[in-house]
Amino acid sequence: MEFQQGAYRIQGIDLIELTKEFGTPLYVYDADKIVHQLKTLKTAFADSNVKIKYAAKALTNLSILKLLKKFGSDVDVVSIQEVQLAMRAGFEPSQIMYTPSGVDFSEIVEAVSLGVTINLDNLSVLRKFGEKYKDTYPCSIRLNPHIMAGGNYKISTGHSNSKFGISIYQLPEIREVVATHGIKINGLHIHTGSDITESDVFLKMADILFSVARDFRDLRFIDFGSGFKVSYKEGDIVTNVYDLGLKLTKSFNEFCQSYGRKLELHFEPGKFIVSEAGVLLVRTNVVKSTPDLTFVGVNSGLNHLIRPMMYDAYHDIVNISNPKAEQKTYTVVGYICETDTLGADRKLNEVREGDILLFKNAGAYGFSMSSNYNSRLKPAEVMIYNGKAMLIREREKFDDLLRNQVEVDI
């Protein structure tokens, strides 16, 4: 997004004009930025046999999935429905990594029937998998390395109290189950959380994975998950993926040499790929002054962007309708019957009723975590591709709220 000719634009398209065409609230995604982020990772790890598996849960729109497939991404999914979406978008089963947590075993059986890569994160399921498939269908193992990393406890997934992964201290049990049933282990996986800035965290994971890998001779890949941090505000420290690529590729290639053959190096970025590519456009309903604060109430809320309330996430806010006006301090809130503060004490160019506000970094976990709370409708989604604005999801209508309800006679 750039400020050009007195207006905020993506690929030359005026965002105010987009709201006139498609209404608000409106999610808008810059395809060029998505492709740039994907290519950045591929370049950073180009000296290894790297596979980038986009974490679909960040943004599952079919058009976004098709865009990523076109430019060489694989996909990481966490539910059978995401498996089906990925296949609908054109991904081959071999390109799909399925890592469920706490699902019924029947869902794993269905995923096997579709031919995708299976990644298991607990001993109970590993035993069931071995009993059913023995050595006829390989699987990967997700390990919990007992490393605390990430920007928020709720998105830190590799620490000792996390529900994710099989504890590294349970390796003897893993070996026993694998040996008992003759399971072919084709991959090892660790994901410690989001917003990791230090290369050393990944290098610690590498030490753990490489030491474990020597016990499994049928490996095809080693998967480091993701967690690359992007910038949310000026001055943010972000992951230097080129520095990480240099250090981790060297370590990985040395391991492959000692292992006896080349393996694939996998990453599963979600936020890194789509976060900065997306914006949420909302309309100001009311400017409300109190003795202490001035509130800006907009036609959206936690039902469309829950991250500020759920994770204390910071999203930069811009008044794109009045970009040259004097700045004042506002607290931006939603229209939900709940305290849904989207941004507190923000310096914004003077906000008037009817002005369009833009939320940055809305591409990841924005629409995908949206809801119909307060019986509100979900917004439309637009992707800007090759300089053209394309509607990729229609705005919900009232009939959509009723679609699966069954009215009974009372």
Explain this structure to me?
There is one protein chain. The chain is of the alpha/beta class. It folds into 2 domains: 2-23 and 278-362 and 364-402, Lyase, Ornithine Decarboxylase, Chain A, domain 1 (Beta Barrel); 32-271, Alpha-Beta Barrel (TIM Barrel), CATH 3.20.20.10. 29% of the residues lie in helices and 25% in strands. It has 12 helices and 21 strands. The protein has helices spanning 15-22, 31-44, 62-70, 80-88, 105-114, 123-133, 171-181, 199-213, 241-259, 271-274, 307-311, 398-402; strands spanning 2-4, 7-10, 13-14, 26-30, 50-55, 74-77, 96-98, 117-120, 139-144, 166-167, 185-189, 221-223, 264-267, 278-289, 294-298, 317-319, 327-333, 341-349, 356-359, 380-385, 388-393. Strands 4, 14, 15, 16, 17, 18, 19, 20 and 21 form a 9-stranded mixed sheet that branches. Helix 4 links the parallel strand 6 and strand 7 (96-98). Helix 8 (199-213) runs parallel beside helix 9. The longest helix is centred in the middle third of the chain and has 19 residues, at 241-259. The protein starts with a strand and ends in an 8-residue tail after the last helix. 43% of the residues are buried. The model is unreliable at 148-159 (pLDDT under 50).
